[in-house]
C-alpha cells in the first residue's frame, strides 16, 4: 500500500481522514475513510452519525443502530437476514473510519465481505463418498494439501465451483465414531470469521467380502471425511519467521488479533465453551487476505467455563511445545491450556522459532526489549503510529500466557480487551475524525 504527500488540500471536511488533515498524506485508505462516513450516514442518518461520536465503544453503536432499525414500523418482519445485513454494514463502516489507516480494510475485503451470503446460515451438506472421491481425483497424491494426526487433507472443487479441503480420516481403531462425531458437532456449532468453515461431511459404510483364515467373511469398511472451505494462504506454520524477514508487522498483528478473536469465540461464544487443545501454527490457516482461521478440532472438548478436569487419556493430547506444564505433568485440562498454546504461537509469530527458543533462556524484560529493538530495525515511516505499543503489548501478553502457573495466565477475554485498547482514545472513531477536522465544536452547537 503506497502513500504520497501533497501540498494542496482536497476533499470535503467530514470525509477526509486524519492522516490527510494532519500530514497531507494520500493513499487508497483516503477513499476508504470517506466510504465509511457515507455508509454510516446511509444506515444511521445524520443524527446517527453524530450519535456515533458520543458512544464509547463500537459495539454500543452497532447495537444502537440495530435496535433503531428493529423499532421501525415495517410491512415485513424484521428477519435474521436484515439484522445481519445491518450489523455487517455498520461493522464495516466503523472499521473504515479508524484513525489508524493500517486498520482500515481494503475495498476488495469490503466487497468480499458483502458478497458472502449475508444473513444466511451456511448449511452443512452431507456428501456421498463417491462425490468426494470424484472431486479429489480418487484422492490423488497430487491433490494432497497436508497431513495431520487424524487424516490426509485433499483439495477438491464442488459442483457449485467452490474449492474445498477434504479431510479424509484414517481408518484406525483409535479413530472411532465418537471422535468423528465430536469434531463434526463442534464444527457445526461454530460460525465465526476466524474459524474454518465446515462445508460438509461424509460418513459412508460399505460391506465387502474378504477371505479370512480360509473363509469368506463380510466386513464393514467405514469412510469418514470432513469438507472445509479452502484457504489459499496455507497454514501459519509455513509463514513463521523472525523479525528480519517474512510478513511485515501490520500483517502479523492482524493475524494475532484474528487468532485471539477466534479463540475468544470458542471459549465464550456459546453456553458450553469449546477448548481446542491442539492450537498451533499448523492448525491455523490463512485466506488470501491473510485473515487467520482456527481449524482442526479433532481433540476439542466441551466443558463448563473456568473448570479444571483431569483426563484419563492414555496418549497425550496436543503437540509438544504448545502443551502447558500442568497437562504434561498431571493431565489437567482447563481454559488455560489453550491460553498457553496461544502464548507460544504469538511468540513465534513475532520472533520466529529461534526467538521462541531464546525466550526460555533469558529474563522476560530482556526478551521484550530485544523483540522491540529487532522490530524497530525493520520499521519504515509508513508504519502505524501504534506499532511500537502493539509490539510491546503483544509480547508481554504472550509471556503472561506461557506462565508455568496457570492461575497467572490471563483469560482470552482479558487478552482481547487489552488488544482493543491499543491506541484507542476515549472518544469513538467518528469523534476523533470530527476533532481532527475541527468540527466537533461546530456541530456540537448546530445539530
Automatic annotation (TrEMBL):
Matches recorded under InterPro entries: Kinase-like_dom_sf (IPR011009), Prot_kinase_dom (IPR000719), Protein_kinase_ATP_BS (IPR017441), Ser/Thr_kinase_AS (IPR008271)
Chain sites annotated for binding ATP: 168
PROSITE patterns associated with the record: PROTEIN_KINASE_ATP (PS00107), PROTEIN_KINASE_DOM (PS50011), PROTEIN_KINASE_ST (PS00108)
Keyword Hydrolase: no
Keyword set includes Phosphoprotein: no
Segments forming domain Protein kinase: 1-123, 139-422
Top-level taxon: Eukaryota
Sorted UniProt keywords: ATP-binding, Kinase, Nucleotide-binding, Serine/threonine-protein kinase, Transferase
Gene3D superfamilies, A to Z: Phosphorylase Kinase, domain 1, Transferase(Phosphotransferase) domain 1
Gene Ontology MF terms in the entry: ATP binding; protein serine/threonine kinase activity
Family: Belongs to the protein kinase superfamily.
Protein name per Swiss-Prot or TrEMBL: Protein kinase domain-containing protein
Organism: Brachypodium distachyon
Amino acid at each position: 500500500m503506497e502513500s504520497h504527500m501533497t501540498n494542496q488540500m482536497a476533499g470535503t471536511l467530514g470525509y477526509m481522514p486524519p492522516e490527510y488533515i494532519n500530514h497531507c498524506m494520500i493513499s487508497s485508505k483516503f477513499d476508504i475513510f470517506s466510504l465509511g462516513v457515507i455508509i454510516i450516514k446511509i444506515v444511521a442518518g445524520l443524527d446517527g452519525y453524530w450519535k456515533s461520536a458520543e458512544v464509547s465503544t463500537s459495539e454500543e453503536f452497532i447495537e444502537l443502530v440495530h435496535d433503531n432499525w428493529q423499532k421501525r414500523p415495517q410491512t415485513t418482519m424484521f428477519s435474521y437476514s436484515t439484522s445481519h445485513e445491518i450489523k455487517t454494514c455498520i461493522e464495516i463502516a466503523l472499521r473504515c473510519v479508524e484513525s489508524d489507516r493500517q486498520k482500515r480494510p481494503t475495498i476488495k475485503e469490503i466487497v468480499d465481505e458483502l458478497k458472502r451470503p449475508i444473513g444466511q446460515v451456511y448449511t452443512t451438506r452431507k456428501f456421498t463418498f463417491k462425490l468426494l472421491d470424484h472431486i479429489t481425483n480418487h484422492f490423488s497424491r497430487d491433490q494432497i494439501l497436508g497431513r495431520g494426526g487424524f487424516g490426509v487433507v485433499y483439495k477438491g472443487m464442488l459442483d457449485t465451483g467452490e474449492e474445498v479441503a477434504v479431510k479424509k480420516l484414517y481408518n484406525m481403531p483409535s479413530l472411532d465414531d465418537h471422535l468423528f462425531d465430536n469434531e463434526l458437532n463442534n464444527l457445526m456449532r461454530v460460525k465465526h470469521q476466524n474459524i474454518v468453515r465446515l462445508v460438509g461431511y461424509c460418513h459412508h459404510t460399505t460391506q465387502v467380502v474378504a477371505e479370512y483364515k480360509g473363509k469368506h467373511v463380510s466386513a464393514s469398511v467405514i469412510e469418514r471425511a470432513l469438507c472445509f472451505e479452502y484457504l489459499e494462504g496455507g497454514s501459519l506454520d509455513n509463514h513463521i519467521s523472525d523479525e528480519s524477514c517474512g510478513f511485515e508487522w501490520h500483517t502479523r498483528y492482524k493475524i494475532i488479533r484474528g487468532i485471539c478473536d477466534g479463540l475468544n469465540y470458542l471459549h465464550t461464544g456459546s453456553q458450553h465453551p469449546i477448548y481446542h487443545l491442539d492450537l498451533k501454527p499448523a492448525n491455523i490457516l490463512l485466506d488470501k487476505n491473510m485473515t487467520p482461521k482456527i481449524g482442526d478440532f479433532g481433540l476439542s472438548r466441551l466443558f463448563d467455563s473456568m473448570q479444571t478436569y483431569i483426563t484419563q487419556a492414555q496418549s497425550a493430547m496436543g503437540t509438544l511445545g504448545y502443551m502447558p506444564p500442568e497437562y504434561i505433568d498431571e493431565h489437567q485440562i482447563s481454559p488455560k491450556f489453550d491460553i498457553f498454546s496461544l502464548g507460544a504461537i504469538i511468540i513465534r509469530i513475532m520472533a520466529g522459532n529461534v526467538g521462541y527458543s531464546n525466550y526460555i533462556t533469558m529474563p522476560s524484560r530482556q526478551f521484550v526489549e530485544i523483540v522491540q529493538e529487532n522490530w524497530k530495525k525493520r520499521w519504515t515511516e509508513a508504519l502505524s503510529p501504534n506499532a511500537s505499543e502493539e509490539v510491546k503489548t503483544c509480547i508481554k501478553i504472550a509471556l503472561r500466557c506461557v506462565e508455568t502457573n496457570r492461575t497467572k495466565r490471563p483469560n482470552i477475554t482479558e487478552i482481547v480487551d487489552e488488544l482493543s485498547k491499543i491506541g484507542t482514545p476515549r472518544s469513538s472513531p467518528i469523534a476523533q475524525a470530527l476533532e481532527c477536522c475541527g468540527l466537533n465544536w461546530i456541530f456540537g452547537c448546530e445539530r
